[in-house]
């Protein structure tokens, strides 16, 4: 059904609207009760928006990658620990757990700050949630709290790298996220 955008608050709360914008995109707005979602679908071929689009704090797409490297033995990283790590970082980033990709590499020869003492280097790569110092400061505090508690490591033996990804940098299903 093609129609004009809702003009009153009452219309926007009770209707689902589809309309064409001047930028050759199909815009779908679904409103129910106190919340609404908007999808923007281009009518031309090519990639979707180059940056993550948020409507009412709902992400269009994101897929975090977590790579933990450590000189701690493999026995320090049970499946239960890996699940807790996944849950903790998903919560810190505001991501659903089923979008997380986690790899743990234990037993490595590692040197941090001139010492071979037990340590962890964690890399977090994601679309749209690791792109500012303010966001990463918040993520870092939550992740450090988890790692120091679970692995009994002091903060100076943990290093976290945050990488901001763009949709065209993540491949899935034989294409890249820009086209999914």
The radius of gyration over CA amounts to: 21 Å
Look at the structure and name the CATH superfamily of the domain at 64-176.
Answer: Macrophage Migration Inhibitory Factor
Low-confidence stretches: 9-28, 35-61
How would a textbook summarize the main sheet?
4 strands, mixed
Strand order of the largest sheet: 7-6-8-9
Order of helices and strands: HEEEEEEHEEHEEE
Structural class: alpha+beta
In DSSP terms (H or I, runs of 4 or more residues), the helix count works out at 3
Helix content: 10-25%
Which CATH class of the domain at 64-176?
A: Alpha Beta
Count the E strands: 11
What's the CATH topology name of the domain at 64-176? Macrophage Migration Inhibitory Factor
Shape: globular
For the termini, the CA-CA separation is: 24 Å
User: Hey, roughly how much beta strand do the residues contain?
Assistant: 25-35%
Look at the structure and give the mean pLDDT: 78
Level-2 CATH architecture of the domain at 64-176? 2-Layer Sandwich
Organism: Lates calcarifer
Protein name: D-dopachrome decarboxylase
GO cellular component, one term: extracellular space
InterPro entries: Macrophage_inhib_fac, Tautomerase/MIF_sf
């Amino acid at each position: 059904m093609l129609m004009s955008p809702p003009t009153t608050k009452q219309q926007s709360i009770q209707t689902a609207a589809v309309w064409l914008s001047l930028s050759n995109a199909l815009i779908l707005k679904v409103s129910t009760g106190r919340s609404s979602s908007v999808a923007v679908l281009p009518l031309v071929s090519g990639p979707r928006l180059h940056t993550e689009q948020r409507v009412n704090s709902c992400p269009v797409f994101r897929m975090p990658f977590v790579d933990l490297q450590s000189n701690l033995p493999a026995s320090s990283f049970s499946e239960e620990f890996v699940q807790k790590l996944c849950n903790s970082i998903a919560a810190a980033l505001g991501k659903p757990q089923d979008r997380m990709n986690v790899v743990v590499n234990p037993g490595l020869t590692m040197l941090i700050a001139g010492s071979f003492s037990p340590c962890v280097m964690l890399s977090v790569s994601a679309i749209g949630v690791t792109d500012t110092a303010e966001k990463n400061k918040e993520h870092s505090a939550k992740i450090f709290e988890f790692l120091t508690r679970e692995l009994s490591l002091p903060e100076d033996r943990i290093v976290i790298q945050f990488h901001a990804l763009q949709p065209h940098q993540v491949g899935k299903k034989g294409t890249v996220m820009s086209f999914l």
